[in-house]
């Protein structure tokens, strides 16, 4: 049989059979609408509230601070637009990092067209935001700071706690009447590394189900008690009025079960994956000359490895790998719908031709040592083959 | 036509086993082109000979490409299309011919076929100039457009191109 090795867990994950098992009754027997007063509705409502608890538990939040949405993109849009609309009388200034996911970057661009001012912070060559830069960027009109917890492409983990601390202190110094809210997009980190919203000074947090072995179609937004957000979806008043839409109970139940599993296995699993990640990174740098690691060597997600290879293009790499049974991803312009290189790779200082040869390998719950060994066997040959065709070569 | 991912079987065949790839020693004409939007680069080398009727033909052709699956496949297929053709016929090869030979390309990759067609006309232009031939107007026009892109690509790949030129000297 042809080998099939999935190393694109950062894109999406398969549903854990345990999460699937938990979901199944909610499609057929327990199908009620959470807003219905009869027993069917109440059964679904109970499941929804139990799920809220499980999700809250994995980030040290209170259940009533968790709001379910349909996707991380929706959560991020809700934060940016909802906070902007609710606070536009106080100020119209928002600070983000240059390595946010497209849904934050594009929402920010939209807000610029609506008269909001966006400051994009610098990052260093590893993609790290310096809390001192956040401090400098804050002004009286600032209403929101949003910095991704761990980057989806290069895996760099940001100093969220320190940034939160800086925001608090600067607000005090400026003697602001209202708080500057701090949001972090934790779609890639939630369930993979420990998160405590209180300890880390987070006011708003985005998390997603399908990145942690839950189903697609469920995500959440943590909103610290007392923060007002104007909803994007008006209607029946679900999720305390923040997000009208019939609750997707099966998906939410699956998300919650995925959270319970992560809570139990996080420590062991992140250690196991980190070891394989390091083996992969070491192996690639040893076996392939002119290969370069993207992101921070230590402060990175346990499951993320990202490289760029001189003189070759990323889409060609991933299609070659796919032919050999390995699923991966790239930030090359050729694989983007906009024909532009990844804004994250450009932000960490890569030239377009360097970003052209990028490769992301992201590990997961079902990655085995032998998978890493196989990649280390076939990847050098793939790069060698493509370099033989390239006009650019090593001296 | 059966598809593999976004690509036709034909595209994948060329990608897996590209025809006429590699560097050519002492070519009669070289076409170096790049796409300023995506950043792909394609260098095409030709050797000109004569057929039995004494007409000039593309006797040999080779390519080197830094680019995606579509860029590699269009590079490979244009060498097939041009090899053995008279210069007159080679000048007529269009990007539509390239796309057709590949059984189609995804819309977003159509620009790769432009790159391949440009590379061939640039290689022929280079041959005409080197041999002090009169240059057909159409070729002159194409060259002028390609020249603009070349300047931008040249700046972008400055470091790597220097590296490549040094290697050529050896």
TrEMBL record, chain A:
It is found in: Cytoplasm. Residues 5-375 form the Aminotransferase class V domain. Keywords: 2Fe-2S, Cytoplasm, Iron, Iron-sulfur, Metal-binding, Pyridoxal phosphate, Transferase. Its cofactor is pyridoxal 5'-phosphate. Belongs to the class-V pyridoxal-phosphate-dependent aminotransferase family. NifS/IscS subfamily. GO terms for biological process: [2Fe-2S] cluster assembly. Its EC number is 2.8.1.7. Pathway: Cofactor biosynthesis; iron-sulfur cluster biosynthesis. The active site is at 334 (cysteine persulfide intermediate). This is Cysteine desulfurase IscS. InterPro entries: Aminotrans_V_dom, Aminotrans_V_PyrdxlP_BS, Cys_deSase_IscS, Cysteine_dSase, PyrdxlP-dep_Trfase, PyrdxlP-dep_Trfase_major, PyrdxlP-dep_Trfase_small. Its main location: cytoplasm. Master enzyme that delivers sulfur to a number of partners involved in Fe-S cluster assembly, tRNA modification or cofactor biosynthesis. Catalyzes the removal of elemental sulfur atoms from cysteine to produce alanine. Functions as a sulfur delivery protein for Fe-S cluster synthesis onto IscU, an Fe-S scaffold assembly protein, as well as other S acceptor proteins. The keyword Repeat does not apply. It comes from the Bacteria. HAMAP family: Cys_desulf_IscS (MF_00331). It holds the Pfam family Aminotran_5. One of its GO terms (cellular component) is L-cysteine desulfurase complex. The keyword Ligase does not apply. Homodimer. Forms a heterotetramer with IscU, interacts with other sulfur acceptors.
């Amino acid at each position: 049989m042809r080998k099939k090795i999935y190393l694109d867990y950062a894109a999406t994950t398969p549903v854990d059979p345990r999460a699937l098992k938990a979901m199944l009754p909610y499609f057929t027997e327990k199908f009620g609408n959470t807003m219905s007063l009869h027993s069917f509705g109440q059964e679904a409502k109970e499941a929804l509230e139990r799920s809220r608890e499980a999700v809250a538990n994995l980030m040290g939040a209170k259940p009533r601070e968790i709001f379910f949405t349909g996707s991380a993109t929706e959560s991020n849009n809700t934060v940016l637009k909802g906070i902007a609309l609710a606070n536009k009388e106080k100020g119209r200034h928002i600070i983000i990092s240059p390595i946010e996911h497209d849904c934050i970057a594009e929402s920010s661009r939209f807000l610029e067209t609506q008269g909001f001012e966006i400051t994009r912070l610098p990052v260093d060559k590893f993609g790290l935001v310096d809390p001192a830069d956040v401090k400098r960027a804050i002004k009286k009109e600032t209403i929101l700071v949003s910095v991704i917890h761990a980057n989806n492409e290069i895996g760099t983990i940001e100093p969220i706690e320190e940034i939160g601390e800086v925001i608090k202190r600067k607000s005090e110094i400026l003697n602001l009447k209202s708080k500057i809210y701090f949001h972090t997009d934790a779609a890639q980190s939630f369930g993979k590394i420990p998160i405590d919203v209180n300890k880390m000074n987070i006011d708003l947090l985005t998390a997603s189900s399908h990145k942690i072995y839950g189903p697609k179609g469920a995500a959440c937004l943590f909103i610290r008690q007392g923060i007002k957000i104007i909803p994007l979806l008006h209607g029946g008043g679900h999720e305390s009025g923040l997000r009208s839409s019939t609750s997707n109970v099966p998906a939410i139940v699956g998300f919650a079960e995925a959270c319970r599993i992560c809570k139990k296995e996080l420590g062991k699993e992140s250690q196991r994956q980190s070891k394989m990640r390091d083996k992969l990174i070491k192996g690639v740098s040893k076996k392939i000359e002119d290969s370069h690691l993207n992101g921070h060597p230590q402060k990175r997600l346990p499951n993320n490895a990202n490289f760029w290879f001189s003189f070759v293009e990323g889409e060609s790499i991933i299609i070659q790998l796919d032919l050999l049974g390995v699923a991966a991803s790239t930030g090359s312009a050729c694989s983007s719908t906009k024909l532009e290189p990844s804004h994250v790779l450009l932000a960490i200082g890569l030239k377009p031709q360097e970003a052209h040869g990028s490769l992301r390998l992201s590990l997961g719950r079902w990655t085995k040592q032998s998978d890493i060994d196989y990649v280390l066997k076939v990847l050098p040959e793939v790069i060698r083959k493509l370099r033989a065709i390239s006009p650019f070569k090593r001296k | 036509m059966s598809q593999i991912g976004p690509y036709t079987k034909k595209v994948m065949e060329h990608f897996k086993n590209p025809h006429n790839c590699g560097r050519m020693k002492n070519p009669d004409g070289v076409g170096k082109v790049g796409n300023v939007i995506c950043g792909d680069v394609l260098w095409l080398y030709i050797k000109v000979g004569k057929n039995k009727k004494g007409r000039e033909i593309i006797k040999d052709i080779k390519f080197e490409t830094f680019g995606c699956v579509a860029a590699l496949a269009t590079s490979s297929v244009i060498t097939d299309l041009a090899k053995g053709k008279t210069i007159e016929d080679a000048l007529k090869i269009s990007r539509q011919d390239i796309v057709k030979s590949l059984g189609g390309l995804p819309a977003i990759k159509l620009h790769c076929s432009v790159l391949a067609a440009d590379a061939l006309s640039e290689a022929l232009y280079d041959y005409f100039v080197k041999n002090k031939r009169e240059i057909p107007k159409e070729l002159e026009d194409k060259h002028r457009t390609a020249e603009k892109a070349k300047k931008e690509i040249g700046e972008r790949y400055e470091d790597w191109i220097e590296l490549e030129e040094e290697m050529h000297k050896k």
